[in-house]
Amino acid sequence: MIPVTTFKGRKIALFGLGGSGLATAQALVAGGAEVTAWDDNPDSVIRAAAAGIATLDLRGADWQAFSALVLSPGVPLTHPKPHWSVDLAHQTGVEIIGDVELFVRERRAHAPNCPFIAITGTNGKSTTTALIAHLLRTSGRDTQLGGNIGTAVLTLDSPKAGRFYVVECSSYQIDLAPTVDPTAGILLNLTPDHLDRHGTMRHYADIKERLVAGSRTAIVGVDDSFSSLIADRVERAGTKVVRISRRHVLADGIYAEGFSLMRAHGGTSTLFADLGCIQTLRGAHNAQNAAAAVAACLAVGIDEKDIIDGLSSFPGLKHRMQPIAKMGEVIFVNDSKATNADAAAPALSSYDRIYWIAGGLAKEGGITSLAPFFPKIAKAYLIGEAAPAFAATLGDAVPYEISGTLERAVAHAAADAARDREGPAAVMLSPACASFDQYKNFEVRGDAFAGHVAALEGVTMLI
Predict the structure, then answer these.
(1) What is the pLDDT of residues 331-376, one digit of tens each?
(2) Which of 326, 224, 229, 372 is nearest to 285 (CA)?
(3) pTM recorded for the entire structure
(4) Euclidean distance between CA atoms 160 and 329, whole angstroms
(5) Which of 57, 174, 250, 318 is the most exposed place for a label (fewest CB within 10 A)?
(6) How far apart are CA 97 and CA 83, in angstroms?
(7) How many angstroms from the chain centroid is the CA of residue 214?
(8) Are 436 and 361 within 8 A, CB to CB?
(9) Are 243 and 265 in contact (CB under 8 A)?
């Protein structure tokens, strides 16, 4: 835990007592703050009280006494309308911040020079965050990984010299972190997302821009117009900018050219790393993630050889295009996180011959947008409620069977792939569906896939 000492002896209002909210309350108390907490969910209030956190309906509190409102990122700050706790804070002039802001203040107070890498973007945040942490750890650095990736940032070890922090930041967290100041800040990309919470694409982009605008080195993907303009603005303001791209050759920066990761300076490019033989970094989207990770590690002083060695040993992020096993030349890929067609597209684009397990609880639009990838699919194995609709979409374009269950689909796909003589094949779970018709969540579905694969004869597990 990181005790939040910067509010020692001061009264703090805290709203939102889910996992990260409760951790934040405990970190504030550990640092000597006087916390009054509340949540609209009575069960969360009960859990917090049982953990020793003082609880009170903040609508009846003396807001003039509070130094800050610490808001959980899931609570509306601006759109569709501010939460009532936000209105009360505005009425009394109380600043509104979140857990990432508390972290950056602790870092500045106690170890301002310890390296801090922050990652944001619409897509690719978690893989990039995990890859950076892996590169740092394999180079021997004391590395703390947290934030939006699933570990509350204030549950990490306290800042000290030589300790590296890798923090994934959602737009909600950045909106509550007005002084965020990473050593290296990454903006991967921007596409319309969370507009119900931010109102407009312009506002969404402005929030994301704050992360790189406050960075010592800003690493920005320039494959979309919003991010490219942000890179230009931040650079004009005097910040060092490293541009990255998966689509364009750059005069300066790091870009992908096929499977090659290129580093360019002054119009001259050199090969930095070959990603072609790294299963966990297949696909153009992962080339961008790798480019961002390389740029960040270089920015915090990691040796080139250590970075290249770390890339080759990256195990991937669980349930996201994760190679889990081999059987001869057949690779088994767990992409259970692909809960809609857009999310399945990167995996389908990354392999040339696929035995595709798809289906579950369908999202709007089904799999029609995946038609450009149908020529790559040797056969589809359809499961769950979506199976009949997916079969209708595949029609005569792709051979398919309605397997019904994941266990049956794995057995049939593995047998068919083993008989394939047209080249290396992938048995891939990339469902393009939610899991809730058959499984509690995508993690349980992915674990079930791994279990069924492990039960196959002749399989070598990679995880």
Answers:
(1) 999 999 998 898 899 899 989 999 999 999 988 889 999 999 999 9
(2) 224
(3) 0.86
(4) 47
(5) 57
(6) 14
(7) 20
(8) yes
(9) no
